[in-house]
Structure formats: C-alpha cells, structure tokens
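REQUEST ID: PR-0412
SUBMITTED BY: lab tech R.K.
PRIORITY: routine
TASK: structure prediction, single protein chain
INPUT:
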Amino acid sequence: QVQLVESGGGLVQAGGSLRLSCAASARTYSRSTMGWFRQSPGKEREFVSAINWNNGSTHYADSVKGRFTISRDNAKNTVYLQMNSLKPEDTAVYYCAADRWSSGSYRPVDYDYWGQGTQVTVST
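STATUS: complete
OUTPUT:
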C-alpha cells in the first residue's frame, strides 16, 4: 500500500504563488503516473496536472496551462506542483494521486492511490 502525503497549501492573494508537495511512501511502479486533482465545494473533482515517473512527460488542464508546473524528484519520491498567478477560481482542496499503470486517463476513477488533500485558498 502506497501512502501519499500532500503539503504546501495555504491562503494566498490573487496573483501569488504556492508550491504543493506530494511525498510517496514508496515508489509505486516505474510506469506509474502521478497526478494532481482539485475539488471545490459543490463541484466534481477535476484533473489539474500529471507527470510520468519514468519519462517525465507532463500534461495539464487547459485552465492551468502556463501558470502551473508539475515536476518530480525521483530520489525523494516526491512530486511538486508549482502554482503561479493564482486566481480565486483556483481555490479548492488539492489532491495528489497515483495511477499505477499510467493508463493515460485523467479521470479520478482511474487513479489507485490518493492523499488526504491540502486546502488552497486564493483571496481577491
């Protein structure tokens, strides 16, 4: 069982930056993909970004392209999400998740392990 622990959330003004971290208790599988999702009250959980552990390929939701950057540190089993130019609509609980087999899906149902989430609040 892989545990994922997020950190780095908080309160920031619009236009500011935050960096989220997701520490994995162990490397899931060399083929796995790590993803970031977010969920705000009354809305479904939505895909934000993903990175493949092995080759480092990345993918972003259109709403965050050019503002967010996902990266990984293989030695630390840690994935990061650098969030710049934050907007109030980015306010949500952010979750880290692992897709063991890199299915190529960005649907939450296709991810096998989840962290507990970290709150990001962007004020106007």
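NOTES: The mean pLDDT is 93.
REVIEWED BY: pending
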